[in-house]
Amino acid sequence: MDPEPVRIRALKRAPVFADIANWMQSKIPGLADATTFRADAPVLLGHAYFLLNDSYKIRRNQISNTDDYKKAALSALSVMALRPFEPSEPDNLTSNVAYFANPIYAIASANAWLSSRNLLEHYNFAYLRRFYLSLLRIRLGCLDDFVARASNGEDYAAIKMIEMSWHDADVVEDWIHKFWLLSQRKL
Length: 187
What we know:
The chain is mainly alpha-helical. It has helices at residues 6-27, 31-34, 41-59, 68-82, 96-99, 101-111, 119-122, 125-136, 144-151, 166-184, and strands at 35-37, 85-87. Strands 1-2 form a two-stranded antiparallel sheet.
């Protein structure tokens, strides 16, 4: 386990999540109009990432550093737990951009750790759509309290550790494998 507090590590990781969101808003036509990005999301995402990381290491009895595929999976799962892009008109979703904003952000955040290729540039939307839909179905019970506190403006930083179920650990492993496959697939 990292001796540095989760909050400090989250603050250090936040600029990565912010840069990716800014990149998306500048590159994806209509995203800025169709959605709102939660202002505190980068810090929340960093916090969720390290809560997942620390708890996964305990669940799997790991003491080694986190490899890039695990970083990719934990980044994407953090995004999908918090879903920081909110549709501007949630009762009138008429665009894929608004509907898939969070899964696209999850893939883009994962991609930051995959040096072998840029997933969003190498795969077309139709191919990635199955991954986007799969990401939309993700639920990690171990982050429920954290997400509820963050959503209600409560003290989420008081959560220093979460307990990951075997099911949640399997979800993490599934996405580690999916990102490995996506980065290795021949085009």
